[in-house]
């Protein structure tokens, strides 16, 4: 059931309510300007031209609900819903079901709940929570905060200085452009500090200095220029590459030679194998510098002595299948 009202403060539990004015809804039944009902729960509700702050809710079916330019509150409840906040600083809740929730312009808060949800912040500084199941969280433009929660989630920060937390499960985290903070949480996570994927070896990183933390589990962490990597517990794989240039080497804070693996991805097409050297820091015990063809790629803090034999060279043509997640 969808309910419409022109009375400020009215909230229809289990239906749809509007605050502040009267509306007409294109539905399976006739409505008037004051109140009305709709038994066709899957019909779209579009209020993108409405400048008021609205409270809208679904009816347990597969709803398509759009807010207006005000600061809206929308809850889809159960069902596979499509929710758009449009402009304004909106609070959007997908509820149960496989929902598609988009924030639009403004600083929005998005929640997925049960189901495999796709949550997109778009523009603005957004807060996005996947909660349960395997969700996809997309920050878009702005300085966003993404929290996957339970399940095997995919998180992409987009443009801006973002904070990503995978939570529990085997998650995939990509910071995108900006100085991002990525924390895998608990599970075998895939974490990338690169601004672009290096599949075609074309300017994959812009050296904006991300903070990457694997947390618990056996993680794969791809370090870009200026990134600071804390692998955390577990048998982790740390991927370095010749995308590190201009002296902006990565820093590995807790490399464990007995548990962790170091991979060096390099474009070998038509080129000789690179010369890999490991030089101990002259001033700081337990710190080494990895150099490739004389260029520093990483500074490594380790619990033992690091040598070139600890580094596995991988052709970039082979890397996507296991290291780069492509």
In short, what is this structure?
By secondary structure, this protein is mainly beta. 0% of the residues lie in helices and 33% in strands. It folds into two domains: 42-142; 180-319, no CATH class.
Report on this model:
The chain is mainly β. The chain folds into 2 domains: 42-142; 180-319, no CATH class. It is built from no helices and 29 strands. The protein has strands at residues 2-4, 36-38, 44-46, 55-57, 64-66, 73-75, 82-84, 91-93, 100-102, 109-111, 118-120, 127-129, 136-138, 145-147, 154-156, 163-165, 172-174, 181-183, 190-192, 211-213, 220-222, 228-230, 237-241, 250-255, 261-266, 276-280, 287-292, 295-302, 311-315. A 14-stranded mixed sheet has the order 4-6-8-10-12-14-16-18-20-22-24-28-27-26, with no helix packed on it. Strands 3-5-7-9-11-13-15-17-19-21-23-25-29 form a 13-stranded parallel sheet, with no helix packed on it. A two-stranded antiparallel sheet has the order 1-2. β27 and β28 (295-302) form a beta hairpin. It is elongated and about 65 Å long. Residues 1-40 have low confidence and may be disordered.
Let me know the average pLDDT. 83
What is the helical fraction, as a range of percent? under 10%
Global geometry: elongated
* Widest sheet, order of strands: 4-6-8-10-12-14-16-18-20-22-24-28-27-26
The N- to C-terminal Cα distance equals 44 Å
Category by helix and strand content: mainly beta
User: Which parts are unreliable, with pLDDT below 50 for 5 consecutive residues or more?
Assistant: 1-40
Radius of gyration: 24 Å
Tally of separate helices: 0
